[in-house]
Design brief:
Oligomer: heterodimer
CATH topology of chain A: Rossmann fold
Strand order of the largest sheet of chain A: 3-4-5-6
Structural class of chain A: alpha/beta
Structural class of chain B: alpha/beta
Strand content of chain B: 25-35%
Radius of gyration of chain A: 20 Å
Strand order of the largest sheet of chain B: 1-2-5-4-3
Distance between the termini of chain B: 66 Å
Order of helices and strands of chain B: HEEHEEEEHE
Helix content of chain B: 10-25%
Order of helices and strands of chain A: EEHEHEHEHEHH
Largest sheet of chain A: 4 strands, parallel
Helix content of chain A: 25-40%
CATH topology of the domain at 5-99 in chain B: Beta Polymerase, domain 2
Number of helices of chain B: 3
Shape of chain B: elongated
Distance between the termini of chain A: 71 Å
Shape of chain A: flat
Number of domains of chain A: 1
Chain lengths: ~200, ~170
Amino acid sequence: MSRPVRFNTTPILATTADAVGAIEAPPGFTGDGFFTAQLSTVVGLARKNSIWPLPFATSCCGIEFMATMGSHYDLSRFGSERVGFSPRQCDLLMVMGTIAKKMGPVLRQVYLQMAEPRWVIAIGACASSGGIFDTYSVLQGIDQVIPVDVYVPGCPPRPEAILDGFMKIQDLVGEESIRRRHSEQYKTLLNSYGIQ
Amino acid sequence: MALTNQYMQEKLQEKFGDLVSNFEESYGLLSFEATAANNLKVLQFLYDEPSLQFQFLTDLCGVNFPDDAGREISVVYHLHNLTENIRLRFKIFVPVAAPDVFTSCNLFSSANWMERETYDFYGVNFVGHPNLKRILNVDEMDYFPLRKEYPLEDQTRIDKDDEMFGRG
C-alpha cells in the first residue's frame, strides 16, 4: 500500500519578526545625524560578526563540524558562512581532531600563514589534550605548538558545544582591544611559542 | 605436484642442514627459523629454487622479546609463492645490543619501506639498506617506540600534561 499523502490544509503564515537576529548598537552618543562610539567597540562588533573560519579537521570532530556547518545547526547564523580554505584569508583556525606529532609542524605553518588578528579554537579532547591517544605519536594538545584561545571539551563535542565555543570566541573577538596585538604581553606569548 | 609443507621443510633441511631449525606448523602455515647471518642465503634459495619459488614478500616486521637474552629482536618475513598460492613464515633473531641484519632490498624491492618501518619501531639495523631512516615517526625521535623497554605509562615523558590525565 502506498503511503498516504498528507496535505498541509492549514498553512501557518511565516512570521519573520523573531527569526532575524539584529546586533545591538555599541554604546555611544547619538545626535542629530551623527553617532560617536569607541573605535574598538565598532571594530570588535564588525569582527565578531564576520569571522571567517579555517577548518583544520583531521578526524571525527571534523564530522561534528560538518553538522555544525549544515542547515540544522548552521554556523552561518553567526556570520561565519564563509569558510575559507586558505589560511591567508581566515581569522579563526578551528582545529578539530587528533594532531599527530608529524602533523604539528604543518599546523604551525598554517597558523603562521594566517594574518593578524587571528584566533584559534581547539575542538575536542584530542586537539585540546591528546585525548585518549596518550602515546608516542600524538601531540598532547595543540597548545604545545600554537597558542589557543578557546578549548571545547568532548569526544567528539556535539554541534551545540562547538557553537558554544564559537560564541566564546565571538566574545573574545568583540571585547579585544585593537592594540592587544601590539602589546608586550602578546609578543611574550608568541615568543614563548618561538614565533617572532 | 602440490607444494606441501613437508616438502618445503625437507628441501630447506637438505640445503641448509642445521642452519635452519624450529620448524612448526600453525594453522597450516609453515614457519621456521634461521641464523641471522644466513637470512639472505635462505631467502635467495627460496626465491630461486624452481620447486619453491617464494618470489613475493608479503610482509616484513619486527618483534621484541625482552626476556629472551641474546635473541631479543626478531625479524619475521612472510613469503608467498604466487603460482602455488602457498605462504611461508621465516624468522631470524638478533641480540638487542647489536641488531644487525642484512637487508633484503636487493632481492625484494618492497622490502625497502618495510625495513625502514622495522628500523623505525624496533631499531633493527639493516646492513646495506640504501636509505635507512625513519619512515612513520618524527625524525627527531630518539628512541624506538615499539621496543618493550618502557612502562605502559611512562612517567618520564614531558610532552604530555599530567593534569589533563588526572595524574597531576
